[in-house]
Amino acid sequence: MVILPLIISSVISALAQIRPSHAGRIGSLTVLYYLTTTFLATFTGIILVSSIHPGDPKLIDYIGNGTLEDTALSTLDTFLDQIRNMFPENIVQATFQQVHTEYKEVRPKIQKIGSGGNATNFTAASYMKPTLEHENEMNVLGLIVFCTGFGVILSILGEQARLMINFFIVLDAVIMKWISALMWCYPIGIFSLVCTNIVGIEDLTEMAQDLAMYVVTVICGLMIHSLLTLPLLYFIFTRNSPFQFMTGVLQALATAFGTASSGATLPVTFRSLEENLKIDRRVTRFVLPLGATISMDGTALYEAVAVIFVAQLHEIELSLFDLFTISVTTTVASIGSGSVPAGLDTIVLVLKTVGLPTKELSLLLLVDWLLDRIRTSVNVLGDSFGCGIIYHMTREKLDEADKDELVQQLKSEIMMLNDFDGNSPPPPARLNTQVSLTIPPERNNRKISGSTEEKRSLMDVSNEFHV
Questions:
Q1: 306 has pLDDT over 70
Q2: What's the Rg (C-alpha) of the chain?
Q3: What does the alpha-carbon distance between residue 230 and residue 69 come to, in Å, rounded to a whole number?
Q4: 362-390, pLDDT tens digit by residue?
Q5: What family does this chain come from, according to its entry (predicted)?
Q6: For residues 455 and 257, what is the distance between their CA atoms, to the nearest angstrom?
Q7: Around Cβ 352, how many Cβ atoms within 10 Å?
């Protein structure tokens, strides 16, 4: 309900307040950071699952009847879908639908005509034909690309686009005020979501015993990435305490755990970084929406562990080339997983790339509800650290942009909107303010229609009005 207007207003209002060259630098640093952390997360997962070796072939006997739908999709199809979604054909349609590749079975019919003119129909062997379909899910990546271009153009126009820039700034402030009121309901919603998943498990004890080592491996990998890799990167680039930074985003991490969605956590992450950690909103409003779409550190680590776990169930030895293929494929597949709660669909793509069976993934569905929430929290933490690093690296450029007169006026208006309290009355007028207006003597006469007088003096020579 609020994610769509929040993304549109935040991205456009942020980029409209910085120079185009600075926007390009922020964008390139953002993409580079997200790709680096995603690859590091994948590498951590591969090292950990190879060391702990949680895959026990005996677990195959405990697989239930549940199976995953087989698919002919490849990693290339997922990557190309992301490229197509970056440039939607219809921007209005992108607000509620996105494109994805779907394989459909085709059975061609062949007609053979005999010597007597009689036709005989035959059915040839079926094959899978790729088609482009639309699914009912918001195309966040396409909206971000469009809003990025829109905001940069507003920045180029400058004073000519002042009215439009003010509109998006006010819209952003309205959405954030609305979200502030809705956040009072967040604890109830988060508690309900978690309880629903726990109650739906038939035998929680048996599930914990069978997949204990697998769950421990994934959680250990996520903890190493969130408590060691990401803080170390933050400290190297900023020389500030990463753990003090983490305390400022605890509310966002709790929300991510409850909702299992980076996109649904965006409003809370905005407030945590801007109010608690004082990060420039021009950085957060661009970096976070993009990160909620393409930055999936926790998902990449989880997929790498799951794929190698399946190989261990079948006692399949993976070569170094296979491990490299898994690392690259999981990085690309995690980017295409989106910002909404996802299951194990992207892992199927990685398994097919390496040539591993997919039936055993039904076993992992038992614990996916828990691991999905933990890895989403890691995704949000990675996005937050990225904002801190990019803000530190671009602070000088942002300070240069602040010297622009238009940017100074816009920032003052934003501060006024943020400081405004709906319960407080507007500031009182100054009664002792004196405004003087002087009319030159040569202009103090005017003709009055329908009067016997041709001219009429308004006042004497001084012609001074005082209010």
A1: yes
A2: 30
A3: 35
A4: 677 777 778 888 999 999 999 999 999 99
A5: Belongs to the dicarboxylate/amino acid:cation symporter (DAACS) (TC 2.A.23) family.
A6: 80
A7: 18
| CATH architecture type of domain 3-95+138-419 | Orthogonal Bundle (1.10)
Residue in 232, 235, 280, 275 with CA at minimum distance from that of residue 252: 275
**C-alpha dihedral over 429, 434, 438, 439, to 10 degrees?**
40
Buried b or exposed e, range 258-275, using 16+ CB within 10 angstroms: bbbbbbbbbbbbbbbbbe
Please say if the pLDDT value at position 287 is more than 50. yes
The two tokens of residue 422 are 């709906």
Instruction: Kindly report, residue by residue over 16-75, the tens digit of the pLDDT.
Output: 877 777 788 888 899 899 999 999 999 999 999 989 888 777 666 554 444 444 555 666
In 183-224, where does DSSP find H-type helix?
A: 186-199, 204-210, 212-224
Q: What share of residues in the chain are helix, strand, coil (percent, to 5)?
A: 65, 10, 25
Query: What proportion of the chain, given as a percentage, has pLDDT over 70?
Result: 70
Q: At residue 15, what is the residue type?
A: L
DSSP 3-state of 70: coil
Burial category of 334 from C-beta neighbours within 10 Å (exposed 0-12, middle 13-18, buried 19 and up): buried
Q: How many degrees, rounded to 5, is the angle at CA 260 between CA 258 and CA 262? A: 115
Cα pseudo-dihedral 145, 151, 152, 157, rounded to 10:
150
pLDDT in tens, 351-369: 776 777 777 676 777 777 7
Q: What are the residue boundaries of the structural domains of the chain, listed by start? A: 3-95+138-419, 98-135, 436-466
pTM: 0.71
